[in-house]
Amino acid sequence: MANLKTFIKSKTFFIYSVIFHIILSAFLIIVSWYAFEPKVYNFMAQNFSAYKTGSEEIAVIVIDDKSIERHRWPWKRDLYAKIFEYLNTYSSPKIIGYDAILSSSEDKASDKVLFDTLHGIDNVVVGFSPLEQKDADFEYIKKFNEKFGIDVTDKRKNNNFGIYHSISKFPTEYFNAVKYAGSVNINQDYDGYLRRYDSVITVDKNYYPSLALRMYMLLNNTNKVTLNHNNLFVDETNLTVPTDTSAAGVQNFIRYYKKHSGSEYTHKKYSAIDIIDSLESIKKGERPIIEPSELNDKIVFVGANARGAGLALEDALPTPILQRHPGVDIQATNLDNLINNEFIKQTTLKQDLFVIILLSIATFIIISKFSIFKSILLLISIGIIYFIFTIICYRNGIAPNVITPLAIQLVTMIFGYSYKFIQEGRNKEKIKNAMGKYLSQDIMQNVVQNIDDIRLGGKKANVTVLFADIRGFTSMSEKMTAEEVSVILNEYFSEIEPIITKYNGVINKFIGDAVMAIFGEPIQDINHPQNAVKCACEMLKKVEQLQDKWLFEGKPKIEIGIGINTGEAFVGNIGSEKRLEYTVIGDMVNLASRIESYNKVYKTNMLISSSTYSHVSDIVDVIKIADVTIRGKAKKMDIYEVLRLS
Fold it and tell me: For residues 256 and 321, what is the distance between their CA atoms, to the nearest angstrom?
């Protein structure tokens, strides 16, 4: 056990503790980033980032359960053609995004209807999917890139050309009919949630935009983007998209919106079958379910999401705001972000580490400077302030880590308080070593409990100092052996020590036959002048009792003189870290000693200064001794002989 205590107090233990703290912090950072931060991101995004619904400028047309009830899945492509005919012939949307991947089918006649319809529309962007397979048709990729690729200036130092090597093939007629294409690829995070969107992907070192980015570029008549390490710039616009490089290409965090009341969509949703029925009604001269003017100047997405049709048609993914968020609405959200320049920008690793280090340093400083109660309140306040700060950040489109810094702060608190307790244990040992010989166990316990009041260097304090001296000690000691003198002194000191302790006094030192005691420090006592005088009166009574005892034992009779002064002095531990001595220093101490010496002059037993008398005048009977010349003092002063307690 002794060896364990020694080890805990050693520098080696401190070094091991610091290393353990660093390792534990690193472990917590990793665990938090992968286990907790994604969940907190969902909570923050849902409650503080997604505070408004999607733009009224954007609408989605969905092949939903209602549509599937009318026309069984899979739909013939002439039904899709009717949606595009309605939009192109009777309405006038700004742009149309087709969130679907078309492959070859056996119904050539139905396909031809769709392809012919699309051929006459200049503002449609269709979806395609990049593939990871390496046996690519390079001729097709070359043709695809020539028609649908974009001009990218890549300023990144380490270009990440991604994991894709091929592209889903369009039917030839479809390839020829459409003018613009964008990737509808979506990469979920490891926990299955969709938080990021591939703005730009690379296939065989060729760059392609997402469906949303391609639509945004078309709206702004540009085909150029610039990439750097942290941002995507759309040339000829003021748009800057905060990005990070991923295995797929270039990603940006999606800023989701609040869903419409009673809907699982964050943008205005129309059923595909209502659009088709409206087209038929218009052709018959009847009033349509959906007036074409509703979609004038709107940005329209066409997609599918029907749960009743089975997983083959259900296009929904878990996002921070919805467990089954329709894919077509996610595409609409991305374009909404681009148009309104609303993104979630995640803090960088350097920024996260800076916050963690700053919080750790602040935690250490607060723990070291304040009491446990105050420091805990301050640290809890800092934690709350940081959490509020993260809410404000999310509200403004910035996503800092929330749990990780707070977890590291908690670990730092545990480490800091542990170290503080160990250090306080060391300090208590030093204080005990420095003051234990002057104090009783009870008082020593009180001092140790208030250890912050006793530090190397000390402080100024108002105290009362008592000096007590044996009269004629020199002549008495000359007539006795050293052993006899020590017996008398030991008995005398043993009898007065409990009295001093009783009145909250501290024996500061024994000086030969004299004793010096302090009242008011280190034990806080607002009545220290009164207690010092009461102590002196009881000491005189005890000496009278000892005189009778010693007279009976044939020992010499002794008398004592006591001098008391009250005033401001420097009180504390003087010395070095290895050797401390608790003492009181100041002119008032010297004055107390000199007042005591005047007992011989005036044949008195107890003299007090005027400063002490001002505090005890109501409890003592005195005789004033006026205009006394005190050695070392320029002015004469009054002192008082204490006769008794009144």
Answer: 7
